[in-house]
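Hi R.,

Here are the chain sequences for the assembly we discussed:
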Amino acid sequence: MATLKQVAAHAEVSVQTVSNALNAPHRLRPDTLERVNRSIELLNYRPNRNARSLRTSSVELIGYCVPDWPDQTHLVMDQFLHALCAAAERTGRHILLFTAPPGVDGMPTYDDLHARRLVDGFVLSQTETHDPRHGWLKEQGIPFVSFGRVWKETTQPGPWVDVDGAAGSAMAVRHLYDTGRRRIAFIGWPKSSGLGEDRLGGWRDECKALGLPTAGLSVRCREDSLDEGARAAASLLDAGREVDGIVALSDILALGALRELTRRGLTPGRDLSVTGFDDSPLADVVAPGLTSLRQPMDDIAGELITILTGSADGRPVERLLQPELVIRGSTAPG
Amino acid sequence: MATLKQVAAHAEVSVQTVSNALNAPHRLRPDTLERVNRSIELLNYRPNRNARSLRTSSVELIGYCVPDWPDQTHLVMDQFLHALCAAAERTGRHILLFTAPPGVDGMPTYDDLHARRLVDGFVLSQTETHDPRHGWLKEQGIPFVSFGRVWKETTQPGPWVDVDGAAGSAMAVRHLYDTGRRRIAFIGWPKSSGLGEDRLGGWRDECKALGLPTAGLSVRCREDSLDEGARAAASLLDAGREVDGIVALSDILALGALRELTRRGLTPGRDLSVTGFDDSPLADVVAPGLTSLRQPMDDIAGELITILTGSADGRPVERLLQPELVIRGSTAPG
DNA sequence: TCGGATGTTTTTAACGTTCAAAACGTCCGT
DNA sequence: ACGGACGTTTTGAACGTTAAAAACATCCGA
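And here is the predicted structure of the full complex:
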C-alpha cells in the first residue's frame, strides 16, 4: 500500500508537495501537479484516513443509533438509512452504526463514541416526546442534528429537521373532501405524543376550515397496533356517526381500520376512504392499496447532513419539510 | 480531551505504562495499575481510536453496503442491521455503511474503502446468483464474509453463512402435513435463482418423503410481487389440482396468494393453508397472520462477525443455519 | 557476593498525515 | 544591482498511540 512518502520519492518532490497536490492543488505549479498526479495514479495511492484523522482530528464519520424498537416503527428505516448514507457520501462522509439503550441511559455510549473519536457527531432519529438526548448532547458540546422534534414547550436544543405532520393530515383531509367525503374521522395516539397532537391538529383545523364536523370523530388508541386501529374503526362505526372517511395517524392503524371495514363487509375506497402515514411498504401491499403520506427521505437526509456538517452557513437550522400524498385504492381515485 | 501523556504525567509513570494498563494490565505491578487506573478515571481518559488505528493499522470497522433495491427485499434489513451491529459491538467493532452500484461496478468502492483504511473488511448480503463480488474481493485479498451463497457450480470463494432454505421448505411442508394437508403446492421464482431452486428442492424432497404428490403443483413467478403471487395461486386453483396447502418462496408471494384466496371467498387457514418465508413485518400484519420461516438473525450476525474477525479458529467457514417456523393463522393452528 | 532469572518500567522509534514556518526562486520596479 | 513581493517547494514538528528493545529492580541460588 503506497504512502505519501513513496509517491513523493517517485515524483521527486517532498512529501508535503504531494499532500498539497491532493488538498490544495492550486498551490502547485501546473507541471509539478501533473507529475505528482501521474505518480499518484501509477502507484495507485490512497490517503490513509486514520493518519489524516489523527492530524486533523476529524473523522468524517457520523454516528446513527439503530433503534431497537417494535417492528412497526422500523418500517421506513431502510429507506431513511439509504438516503442518509447517500447524502453523507456526497460530502465524503460515512455513517457509523451503533446501538444504545433508549433515553438517558444511552448517553454514555454517545459520549464514548465521540470521545474516542469514532465519530464527529450524530444524527438522532426516533425522537421521543421530551427526548433527553438533545439537551445532553448540547450540554456536552457534541455536534448533532435531530430528525424529528422533541415537542417540549420550551425551545428545542439543537438543530432539527422534521416533516410537517399537521400539513400532512390537512392534505389527507383535503383529498378526502375533494373526493366527496364529508364526515372525516381521525384515529390517533395518546395525548402524550407530540407527534400525535401535531397530526391531530392538522386534521381538526382543516376540517374546520372546510366546514366539516369534528365533534366525536376523533379516537385515541393506546398503542400503534393493528388491533387498536381495528378497535378504533369499530367504535367509530358503532357510534353511528356516519363516518365516510378516516385519517389514521399511521399505516398500521390505517391497516387495522381497513381490516375492520372489510370484516363488516364494507369496501374501502368505495364505502369509506382511509389514509395512513409514512407510506411504509405495508401501504402498497394491502388489498386496495393504502393512500398514505410519504416522507421526503432524500430531502430529509440532505438537510440533516448539510446542517450537521456545518455547510449550512446562515441557513435556518430548523427545517420543516412537506410530506407528499401518495394516492392508492383506499381512497378510490378517479 | 485527555491524552495518554496527560494521564502518564498525572500518575507519574511513562506513557507506555498507561498504554499497558489498558492493553496488557498483567504486565503492571498491582499498585501501579491501580494508580494509573485512578488517573484514567479521574481525567476521564478515552483512547483516541485514530491514533491507535494508525499505529496498529486496524480500524475495527466493518463495511456493509446498504442495498438500493425494490422495497420487498428490504423487509428484514433493519432486523439484520440491528443484529449485525450488536454482534460487532460485542467484539468492540462497529458497522460502517456505504452505498455502491450493484455487481462488479461497485468493486472500486469496496476497494477504495479498504485502501483508505476506513474498514478492515466487509459483510456482503443481498448475494446474487453468480455474484461477482466474492471472487473479486478474494483476489484482492480484502477480508469479507458473505451472508448468502453465490450458487455457483464451483466452490464459492470465501467464507459464508446462510440459512438452509431447503430445510425451511421441508419444515413448512411437514407442518402442513401434520395439520392434515395432503396436496401441497409450491410458488417460487425463476430457475435462474439459486435460492429459489434450494427452497423448491426442499419442498419437492419432503413431499416425496411423505408420499405426497408434486406433479403440476409447482408454479414459477416472474418476479417477487403480490400480483405474481396472486396469479400463481389463481393458476393452481384453476387447474383443478385440489390444492389444500401452499408453500410460497417469500412473504410477498404468500400475501399475493392469500389475497387471491380471499377474493375467491376461501378462508386461509381453514380451506387452505399458506406459508411464507423470512417472517417479515408483513406476516404479522395480514388478516389471519401468515405462517412464515424466521431467519435466526442474531445467530447469523454472530457467525458473520466471528468468521470475519478471525476468531473462528479452526471452525468451519461455511455455516448453514436452520430457520424457525413461526406459526400463525394462515395455517390454522390448533 | 555475584550471575542470572524474572518482573516491571522506560526509552526510542515508528505509523502516515498535515500545519506552520522557513527557504528558495523568479520577476518587477526603481 | 537591489529590495521587495509573490509564487512554489521544502523543512521540522506534531497529532496520540503502540511495538520492540533497553533499562532498571528484585529476588534467588550458588
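The mean pLDDT of chain B is 94. Chain B has twelve helices and twelve strands.

Let me know if anything looks off.

Best,
T.
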